[in-house]
Amino acid sequence: MPIGRALLAALAVAGALAAGGCGGDDDEAAESSSSGKPSGTLTYGTWGGEYTNALKKSMLDPFARESGVKVETPSAPGEFVPKLQAQAQANQVKWDLIDPGEDDVEVLIQQGLLQKLPADLKAFMVEKVGKENVTDYGVSMGAYSDVIACNPEVAKRCPASPQEFWDVQKFPGRRSMYGDGWNMNIPYALQADGVPGEQVFPEPDVDRAFKKLDQIKPHVNVWWKTGDQSQQILRDKEVAMSIMWDGRAYQLRDQGMKKLEISHDGMRSQRELIVIPKDAPNPKAAYAFLRWYVTHPKAGAEWIEEIRYGVADPKALDHLSKDVASEIATSPENTKVTYPADAKWAAQARQDVLTRWTNWLGE
Length: 363
Prior knowledge:
This protein is α/β, with parallel strands linked by helices. The chain is 46% helix and 15% strand. Strands 4, 5, 6, 7, 8, 9, 10, 11 and 12 form a 9-stranded mixed beta sheet that branches. Strands 2-1-3 form a 3-stranded parallel beta sheet. The longest helix has 20 residues, at 343-362.
């Protein structure tokens, strides 16, 4: 089942979950996270493909060796909300950690499907990586920006902004956009229609955005579904240009597409959060990994080298070359030309706008 439809199906059960008493995590939040040695299996639901490979190599495998905890990484690319809803309904929560986007985290909090961090763990992480990187429910992971990536060997001219990406006359070529990226594509449609990025939120004009999306839709040749697919269609020259995640674009350049042009101008920046599902089967292992994560900046630097997404610990940048550090979303160079996504808007708008997006895409 496509991701968009999976989310729509999940929305139908959201009210029942919220009404069924899935909240009430104050007792869990009050417990200590440091008592007892972790053991057993840590099940970390993540994005799959190159993302998971990089996560295992830089963090999860070293953590497993040091702690003795076995780590499993089932993939759920873009499906954290519906899958966790289904697990909770069946009283069979399988994940100890997940790292969804911050807008999905907002939805899961509203539905009572996440556990608050124990107070001592939150305080420890704030001390290590700063309060701006820690919330009541999780810690920053995978900070990224969208980018426009373009292969000049295929495209006559490469666009460098949403306005130019929409201009198919001046910038001809086969295009690609994220098929499940309703909350990505609406802001860019508004910018293409003349709205400055810093004015898109907090109340995007959705009707105006869809009118602009109508203009680009006939020219989008591939609506990619996963990060791996977004890379493959550029490798194969199936498309000339794409709006995609920055880490995936820089990875392509590292893997041989040296001429790939990458632009952050006018694009959104956002982050994922590592969070603990309510009723996680092995919370002690989850707590142990979070403590490990915020105390291993070299591992964070290796993750950035592998996938080009940011981490919570600013000390990771000390272990990177200037060139690599300048490419990530949180670099000073890129924060000057990007703007932050509004996770609260995306969470509030999800039901209505996602339904409209799915129907529009299927027309």
